[in-house]
């Protein structure tokens, strides 16, 4: 859980950095490509190809392609179809996908996880809800594509990691994850990117360096590692903990308008769902000396 909490704090800053310094100024596909390339550079020096069989390497590359590459394509396309509040609202369904996919991949069904994930969705909805019009269905489906990709990447890594030796150093194989994402990001920029909107200031490059080396590089490694050390219910809830964390950072540093009562109420619901999940786990676990 400590990894997930730490990355939540890290990514909470990333939202505002992107919104303030990159959005509308730097081509989004170039930003994605740069972030993934820098993240790959962090882990390439540690890569030991002999630690994984060919099929395992392809599986890890596939997870990176889905969780980062394809997810970003869906995500950025959604902003062409929806307003920002609508996009944010529709991301709150990710916890439900996490719990359902985790049960499917591990061959089980845990109804209680749906209860706690549903509470987390309710908490995020309290924070993010704003009215929507009747023409949102196409955009809704595009956002759900992004949500499914992010959820599938997390759950898939949990499943893959469960079949690897516990002593295997994960940092020595994780470069495959980013190389897989590059397989998607490179052609995406070549086909969809705008070469006239490249970074033009030191601030642009500095923010991209931080997002690539730290938020994407260190962040996704620790998030996926943390995903293997918690149950699906806690993982689902932490996906929505990013909502109040991101809003709080934005409010405190950039003084953006925020509905504090909604933030407090929604955050309390999410924290309560996590506490309920932990209580249920303790009740289910056999007593230990």
- Helicity range: over 70%
| Topology as a string of helices (H) and strands (E) | HHHHHHHHHHH
Count the DSSP helices. 11
Stretches with pLDDT under 50, minimum 5 residues: none
Largest sheet: none
- Principal-axis shape equals globular
Distance between the termini: 23 Å
Mean pLDDT: 82
Strand content: under 5%
In angstroms, what is the radius of gyration? 19 Å
The tally of beta strands, per DSSP, is 0
Quickly give the structural class. mainly alpha
Structure, explained:
- The chain crosses the membrane at residues 29-46, 58-75, 81-100, 112-129, 135-153, 173-192, 204-223, 235-254, 260-281.
- Residues 3-127 form the EamA domain.
- It is found in: Cell membrane.
- It is a single chain.
- This protein has 289 residues and is an all-alpha fold.
- It has helices at 2-22, 28-43, 54-78, 84-90, 94-105, 111-128, 137-162, 175-192, 202-227, 232-254, 260-284.
- The protein is globular.
- The protein starts with a helix and ends in a 5-residue tail after the last helix.
